[in-house]
Structures are given as structure tokens and as C-alpha cells.
Design brief:
Length: 245
């Protein structure tokens, strides 16, 4: 597992892929943070739950849209490139279990995702220099970021295992993630009822709105972990099929 994870992290950062994704992400989020701070600074009154931290993590579309593309960008090559280049056979014949292969690749992508978000902690440090910051809210917000990203990366890992083309993998992953996101938007569009309750339960927008206010709903945490576990389980079965098929 450790060897596979190290190999994937090295292959990600030795090519321009990870660096380009991180730079694009930080440019978008830097602009996002700047706009929010300027907006809050011009407001005459700011309530406790409407500060820049809450706005950054829970209210703006610029938080969600980059993840729909950037997470698939980090996972598109995990299995698709191995199959295209023909190196998957040597990996499958190595004395490594199938779960270790899948988890090693997935954890490498997840660590890259964490590295991508790490510089945004400077935004909070800037806010702490100019005013009071609720660190509990900051913690729950970053927990939400980790849970949402972990689910998106698991979906991307599965889609990469379903094809030999990186382009097809990133398109399929983006469509699947966008579909989940749009399903959650139904929370704000549908009339009260069972369907709206389902949409509210899977709504990443609703989840981040809660977590950016310091609220952690265990039902949402269980859902996020399910979104991680199910795609990784299917990916493991797919890799097993290649190994023994």
C-alpha cells in the first residue's frame, strides 16, 4: 500500500498535472476569497453566521464548480493511463493485494487534494490578524471540504478504472459528480415531500452550509463515507476481474 501510494504521488508531481491543477485551483480560490472579503468589508452589519469563513465555504458557487473538474483531473490517470500504457499487467502480477492497489492510488490522490487545499489556511490566518475567527467553524468547514473531496475522488477513481482513456475518465467523473450536485440542488427547487428530503440529504450545498456554521450532522458524514466506500469497493472488484479474468 505504501509503495503504491508513494509511486502515485511521485508520478503525479513529476508531471505538470498536479502542479497545473493546484495553480488553477489556488488562482480561482484566491479570487474567490478576495471578492468575499471586499463584499463583507463594505457591509454595514455582519451577523455571526454570515462572515467571510461562512461565505467562502458555504455560500459561493466558486467553491463547488472547481471541484467538479479538478477532482476528476486528479484521478483520471490512476487506472486509465496504466491500462492504456500496458503497465497494469506488471502491477497486477506484483505481490500486492487488490485492495492495497486501489487504496494506494486513491490515498495518493487524496493527499494531493489535501496539499491543494493547504495554502487556503493562509486566508484564515489573514482573517485572524484583522478580526476574531471561530476556529470551531474553521475546523468543521475543512472537515466538510475533506469529506466532499474524498467522495468526489472515489467516484473519479472508479471512472478511471472503467476506461482506458483519460479524457473519457475525466468526462464520466465530471458528469457523475455534476449529477450528484444537481440532485442536491433539488432541495431548493422541489415542493416538500420525500423526493425533496432525498435531495436535501445528498445536497453538498446544504452540507457545506451547515458545516460552515459549525454544525456536523452525522447522517451527512455517513452518506459521505458511503460515497467513498461504494465506488472504491466496485473499483476493487473491477481490478480483481482484470487480475483473475
Amino acid at each position: 500500500f505504501v509503495a503504491i501510494a508513494k509511486r502515485e504521488i511521485f508520478s503525479l508531481f513529476v508531471t505538470p498535472t498536479a502542479w497545473a491543477l493546484i495553480v488553477v485551483f489556488l488562482l480561482i480560490q484566491g479570487f474567490h476569497f478576495y471578492v468575499l472579503v471586499v463584499r463583507v468589508a463594505t457591509m454595514s452589519e455582519v451577523s455571526v453566521d454570515q462572515g467571510p469563513v461562512q461565505a467562502f465555504f458555504g455560500e459561493s458557487i466558486l467553491f463547488y464548480l472547481p471541484l467538479i473538474v479538478l477532482c476528476p483531473g486528479m484521478t483520471m490517470r490512476l487506472f486509465a493511463e496504466e491500462r492504456r500504457a500496458g503497465t497494469i499487467e506488471s502491477l497486477l502480477t506484483a505481490p500486492v493485494s487488490t485492495p492495497a492497489i486501489v487504496l494506494g492510488k486513491y490515498v495518493a490522490a487524496l493527499l494531493t487534494y489535501v496539499v491543494m487545499w493547504a495554502p487556503t489556511a493562509l486566508y484564515v490566518a489573514i482573517l485572524a490578524k484583522t478580526g476574531e475567527v471561530d476556529w470551531h467553524v474553521v475546523g468543521t468547514s475543512y472537515l466538510g471540504v475533506l469529506l466532499v473531496g474524498a467522495g468526489y475522488l472515489a467516484i473519479g477513481t472508479l471512472m478511471s478504472a472503467m476506461t482506458t482513456s483519460q479524457l473519457v475518465a475525466i468526462v464520466l467523473s465530471s458528469l457523475a459528480i455534476l449529477g450528484l450536485f444537481m440532485l442536491g440542488v433539488g432541495e431548493f427547487l422541489l415542493e416538500p415531500g420525500l423526493l425533496r428530503d432525498v435531495c436535501a440529504h445528498v445536497s453538498v450545498w446544504g452540507q457545506m452550509a451547515e458545516m460552515s456554521k459549525g454544525i456536523v450532522d452525522l447522517r451527512r458524514v455517513v452518506y459521505d463515507l458511503s460515497v467513498v466506500a461504494l465506488p472504491l469497493f466496485v473499483t476493487t472488484r473491477a481490478v480483481d476481474a482484470w487480475r483473475w479474468g
